[in-house]
Amino acid sequence: MGLYLLVRAAVLVVSTAVASVVVFAVMAVLPGDPAEVALGVNATPEAVAAKRAEFGTDRPLVTQFLDWVSGLPTGDFGVSYVTSDHIGPQIVDRLGVTLWLVLFGMLTALVVAVPLGTAAAVRHRSVGGLLLSGLSQVGVAVPAFLAGILLVFLFAVTLRVLPSGGYTPLGEDPGAWFQQLLLPSLSLGLVQGAVLSRYVRSAVLDVMREDYIRTARAKGLGLYRALWRHGARNAAIPVVTVLGLQLATLLIGAVVVERVFTLPGLGSLLLDGVANRDLLLVQGTVMVLVVAVLAVNFLVDVLYAVLDPRLRGAR
Amino acid sequence: MTALENTSPAARGRRRWRRLNASMLVGGALVALVVLAALVSFVWTPHDAVHVDAAHRLAPALSDGYLLGTDKFGRDVASQLLVGARTTLFVGIVAVGVAALVGTPLGVLAGMAGGWLSEIVMRANDLLFAFPALLLAIMLGAVFGASTLTAMIAIGVATIPAFARVARGQTLGVMHTEYVLAARAAGRSRLAIALRHVLPNIASILIVQASVSFAIAILAEAALSFLGFGTPPPTPSWGRMLQESQELLFSTPRLAFLPGLAIALAVLGFNLFGDGLRDWLDPKLREHR
């Protein structure tokens, strides 16, 4: 177990390092000089040179990269070329909104997928099971932002029971905060739940054929009880993997859903950064999202080993 | 299969046709519908898809000669949907093509070579997984400006790992078959084995992967166009039609529902077709999924 974790952690560190080079390199090939962009076309060469020195863009690329990357672990993402604000605090501020959204989205997905997938597996030969499978197929085909628009139409436009967008911090008004996060979380979670339910169905179908379930049934346990007592852990292994991959999808899906519901999360920060040509901000936000995806994959590997001791010896 | 069963190629072919399943038929019909819409849009649309008819803005369906009405600029929605199918397919074909052309050789190489080369290819693959299409496209859009090309490249590059992984897994299986062992014993070069024996045997599963990847590419293109990082105006795109109609959800929800429906049906079609194709190629899997 120790060696397995060590290898996984090493892979995470190396991947993060390579990812930081990639993100920096892509942003560095940008044609144009941030100093010239900041000062406009009428700036004197001296003013541009001074601005470059202020931004630090007059230094060699390697120095700029090392300076940027060494600040990342402490949350120092540099100072925006456009607004002159520190980028780190902005990212931390917005990250909270996105994390809540992803967390609620994930919960929704689980609440939808586990019963739906299990029922579809148990009744896989009946019309009901086929209908459930069909429903999940349709769910998979609906992008989260479309689900968001449909939910807004249903709950905000037609029924008028939930807000169509906006954000109130948790500390200010917990009720409004929850209401405003509900529809975005549902848009993310319902779609992911549809995807996940297909894997739950497949995993439960596999487990249902196992001898230990037949033995448990022979002892007199009902099917659902036998599945819960003996099958849950085995069925959980493939589901957890997909859940991990989905967490990454949710994080990226949040970027789009935040735009639908005008939520001030990391996605909005990224898109605003692009719109304002605030490249250091874009660079920092992309890096945070990439590290989050890598970290999630690492956690999945760890959880995988916890759930299935057989995997610990393997790579 | 019993010993008495007719195993002639013709009989095998007939059995394959009988096995055609509902997923494949429904999926195939939906895909055909999207392809047909795209093809028709080259030669005919009810109106010019980008023509702005200011006098008939937000015309309802079946009015003033507009089958599905007009949008907030007075453009014909039906024509935009038809041309949008073309945009969707174009992005999908290029993106999946890039992914298949790069990912498949990488996967086959990793599967045939094994050892450190395989390890490097697969670790690079894992790293690429950390850059989802959307993030790549936004990054490229920030640097080079949003365009159909950056969207296609981003979606294509982000899809490479899927092909590489499947190709490697399948290649590993094929490498242990007797015909490959025989070819190696006969002294055939690695390239010849890859082209003559490995690729033909893993092609079918790669086609399934292409269909599923196509569905994902459609979703990614729609999301990117919705965010303004995909196909730039005035070229019609389903994702942007949705984005432009969001503010009119209270008054004219039809404008959001129609492109939404088009996206969902196209994705459903490619997903179902891929699933059905997999079952058709390997009936043993049917019960399993």
Automatic annotation (TrEMBL), chain A:
Superkingdom of this protein's organism: Bacteria
Membrane topology, record value: Multi-pass membrane protein
GO molecular function annotation: dipeptide transmembrane transporter activity
Location within or outside the cell: Cell membrane
Record carries keyword Disulfide bond: no
Pfam families named in the record: BPD_transp_1 (PF00528), BPD_transp_1_N (PF19300)
Chief localization: membrane
GO CC terms of this entry: plasma membrane
Keyword field: Cell membrane, Membrane, Transmembrane, Transmembrane helix, Transport
Entry annotated with the keyword NAD: no
Residue stretches making up the ABC transmembrane type-1 domain: 95-300
InterPro entries membership: BPD_transp_1_N (IPR045621), MetI-like (IPR000515), MetI-like_sf (IPR035906)
Transmembrane residue ranges: 7-30, 99-122, 134-157, 177-200, 235-261, 281-307
Family statement: Belongs to the binding-protein-dependent transport system permease family.
Protein name: ABC transporter permease
Organism annotation: Micromonospora globbae
From TrEMBL, chain B:
Occurrences of domain ABC transmembrane type-1 (ranges): 85-274
Presence of the UniProt keyword Transport in the record: yes
Residues that span the membrane, as ranges: 20-44, 89-115, 127-144, 150-167, 198-220, 255-274
Nucleus as UniProt keyword: no
PANTHER family registered for this protein in UniProt: OLIGOPEPTIDE TRANSPORT SYSTEM PERMEASE PROTEIN APPC, PEPTIDE ABC TRANSPORTER PERMEASE PROTEIN
Bilayer topology: Multi-pass membrane protein
Family of this protein: Belongs to the binding-protein-dependent transport system permease family.
Subcellular location: Cell membrane
UniProt record, GO biological process: transmembrane transport
Protein name (Swiss-Prot/TrEMBL): ABC transporter permease
Organism ancestry: Bacteria, Bacillati, Actinomycetota, Actinomycetes, Micromonosporales
Key words of the record: Cell membrane, Membrane, Transmembrane, Transmembrane helix, Transport
GO cellular component assignments: plasma membrane
InterPro entries reported in the protein's UniProt record: BP-dependent_transpt_permease (IPR050366), MetI-like (IPR000515), MetI-like_sf (IPR035906)
Main location: membrane
